[in-house]
Each structure stands twice: as C-alpha cells, then as structure tokens.
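Morning run. Coffee first, then this:
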Amino acid sequence: GADLEEAACRVAKIFGISGFSRACVVEKDMDAIQTAAAAYLRAPLEQAATFKVEAKRSDKGFPLGSPEICAQVGGYLLEQYPHLRVDVHHPDLLVMVEIRDFGAYIHAAQQPGAGGMPVGTGGRAALLISGGIDSPVAGYMMAKRGVELIPVHFASPPYTSERAEEKVVSLLEQVAAYAGRMKLRIVPFTHIQEEIRRACPEELFTLVMRRFMMRI
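And here it is:
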C-alpha cells in the first residue's frame, strides 16, 4: 500500500545513498521470475530495442547458476517481446534478477542517488541563513559532506520584514528534503544593529556586525 513514487523521490534525496532500485519481489521459482520480469518491466521493454539480463545469486541453494538464469529469462523475454534483440555490451535496457534469501528481486538498472555522506557523520555546524541563494546552497553542500545543520537567521525588524523570515523558512524546507530535520534559530538583532550604527565608524559597520553574529 506504500506510494512507491513518493518513496523513490525521497530515497533519491538521502545523502549517503549512491544508487537504488525499485524492484518487484516474487518467489524463487523460474516460472514466477520470468512472468514477473515480462510484466513488471513491460513499459521499458516495449520502448527498448535491445536488452541484457544480469543475474546475482546470493542464495547459493538456488538450483540454477547465474548464466542459466540469464539464459532462461532472456529467452522468455525474447518470446514475449519479438521486437527485442540481445546486446550484452550496450543494451537499451538492463534487466536485473537477484536471487536473495527471502525472494527473487527483479528490476531495471540502478537509479542514481544523492551520493555524499550520511547526514550526521560529519559532525554539526551552524548555517547562517539569509533570504538569498548562497546560504541554502552552502547548506546543501555542507549536508552532502555529512554535516548536521543548525540554521541561524538574524532578524532586524523593521529593517527586515516578516516576509523575509517566511522566505528563509521556505528555503530551509527545500534544503531539509536532503539534510533532514533542522531547528531554525531566529535571533532578534535590531538593538545590536542600531548600537553598532550609533557607536562605530560607518566603514566598520559590516565587519563589526558580522563579528557580533559570530559571537552569538
């Protein structure tokens, strides 16, 4: 009953996964495997001109070896789809059959994942986030290296608007699709900003302001 489209979309955005496959699982029986391969991969088989079958047999108790599995499944698919021909070097479609402990898995070629490192394996770091594009891109790149993000936004009403905060939240929601859950810290900064403007030379304003942000 799971939404496989949604599951595949989410898995594709998890850092640490280099590739994944959507598979059909059937009992470890050659008739069941052949029938399922023809039915489950119907759309790509109809669109392809050439194909190749690869088999992996982690369950060594299965009576057929990998070459025999490939030959039987390939022969069956050629019967079901006469327009196809076998190309073992550069096939349009790769048909995978994996014989595992709990069943036979049938799928097409692996889909690319997000790559990188699992979030959290690279420690934690604060992400200074504004409403621009640079900070969410930096956050994405940090998370891809396994860093758990702690987003911090400095708000200075009335100099910054409520809409700016909403934009920050919207940007973080997009980053969170890859980086996982994050707790946004919003720091009221108006008073500090006004004191800096009152007490510091104008040419040092940005430098001192950034220094206070770093201290916070």
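The longest strand covers residues 50-57. Good start to the day.
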